[in-house]
């Protein structure tokens, strides 16, 4: 089975890259299942309900978020009714939404879970993901041996430590949040695939998907401003997993799929 994880979608440019790139990528790679990190899909931070519906229409089976999970009010209001949109699973029980979901793809079940790290987040604080992991895996393994974890964290050391704990107990742990694709993808002898960060989907000639000059002004003035998106050199980034019937990863391949277009008339339709 081929599972595509689309790295963090950033703004309209990222949504456009999915729209243009995913159909061709699915044909070339014979992809069966699509997970997309949509943490920055709406305005560069968060996911609105319209973009959630649109990304599902484009072919994403599961949407994961991150520290921006509750940035858009319209999503917070309905996230309990959208189990395929995942917020971090290691939040308070009072938080709305779901941290994991088991998707039935024909006769196959695929579990997807999202956890957030504890380093570097000022507006969202998750419980210890390492302490939570055993009970999470035990619950998911009752349904399926194919388990994909999106670990949304900023510290490389925290990610690598988490990978070591999860090794052999799940199909893959895919790092997200930094929006910069790393070159350390691997499959362990125990059959778990990992990568520190899958990257971003949108402009590859940017600062995390945002316009570089706008970000420079932010550093000079101290005034946050991520309102101007970048559209240069669009790419659909992520990783492609090949998984056997026992839920073991056979391979992990980095994806950087260039996307053409993005003119003014095309941007208006996203």
Question: What does it look like?
Answer:
It contains seven helices and 14 strands. Strands 1, 2, 3, 4, 5, 12, 13 and 14 form an eight-stranded mixed beta sheet that branches. The chain has a six-stranded mixed beta sheet with strand order 6-7-8-9-11-10, with helices on one face. Helix content is 27%, strand content 27%. It has one domain: Purple Acid Phosphatase, chain A, domain 2 (4-Layer Sandwich), CATH 3.60.21. The protein starts with a strand and ends with a helix. The mean pLDDT is 95. It has helices at 11-29, 49-58, 73-78, 129-141, 156-166, 212-221, 264-267; strands spanning 2-6, 8-9, 33-37, 62-64, 85-86, 100-105, 108-116, 147-152, 172-176, 186-187, 193-195, 200-203, 234-243, 249-258. With 270 residues, it is an alpha/beta fold.
The CATH homology group name: Metallo-dependent phosphatases
Proportion of β residues?
25-35%
Uncertain segments: none
- The structure class reads alpha/beta
CATH architecture: 4-Layer Sandwich
Overall shape: it is: globular
Estimate the mean pLDDT confidence. 95
How far the N terminus sits from the C terminus, by CA atoms, comes to 31 Å
Radius of gyration: 17 Å
Question: What is the number of beta strands?
Answer: 14
The arrangement of helices and strands along the chain is: EEHEHEHEEEHEHEEEEHEEH
Q: Which fold name corresponds to the CATH topology?
A: Purple Acid Phosphatase, chain A, domain 2
CATH C-level class: Alpha Beta
The number of distinct structural domains comes to 1
The largest β sheet comes out as: 8 strands, mixed
Number of helices: 7
- Helix share of residues? 25-40%
């Amino acid at each position: 089975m081929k599972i595509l994880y689309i790295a963090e979608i950033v703004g309209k440019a990222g949504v456009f890259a999915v729209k243009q790139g995913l159909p061709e990528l699915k044909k070339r790679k014979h992809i069966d299942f699509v997970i997309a990190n949509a943490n920055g899909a709406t305005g560069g931070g968060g996911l609105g309900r319209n973009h959630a519906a649109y990304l599902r229409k484009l072919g994403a089976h599961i949407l994961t978020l991150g520290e921006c999970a509750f940035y858009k009010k319209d999503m917070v209001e309905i996230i309990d009714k959208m189990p395929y949109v995942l917020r971090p699973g290691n939040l308070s029980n009072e938080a709305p939404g779901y941290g994991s979901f088991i998707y039935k793809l024909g006769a196959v079940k695929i579990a997807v879970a999202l956890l957030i790290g504890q380093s570097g987040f000022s507006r969202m604080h998750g419980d210890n993901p390492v302490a939570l992991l055993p009970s999470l895996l035990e619950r998911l393994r009752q349904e399926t041996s194919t388990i994909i974890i999106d670990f949304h964290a900023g510290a490389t050391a925290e990610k690598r430590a988490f990978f070591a704990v999860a090794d052999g107990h799940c199909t893959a742990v895919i790092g997200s949040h930094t929006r910069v694709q790393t070159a350390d993808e691997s499959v362990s002898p125990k059959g778990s695939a990992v990568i520190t960060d899958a990257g971003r989907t949108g402009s590859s000639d940017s600062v995390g998907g945002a316009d570089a000059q706008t970000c420079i002004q932010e550093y000079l003035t101290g005034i946050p401003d991520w309102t101007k998106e970048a559209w240069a050199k669009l790419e659909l980034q992520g990783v492609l997993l090949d998984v056997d019937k026992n839920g073991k990863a056979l391979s992990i391949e980095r994806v950087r799929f260039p996307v053409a277009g993005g003119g003014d008339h095309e941007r208006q339709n996203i």
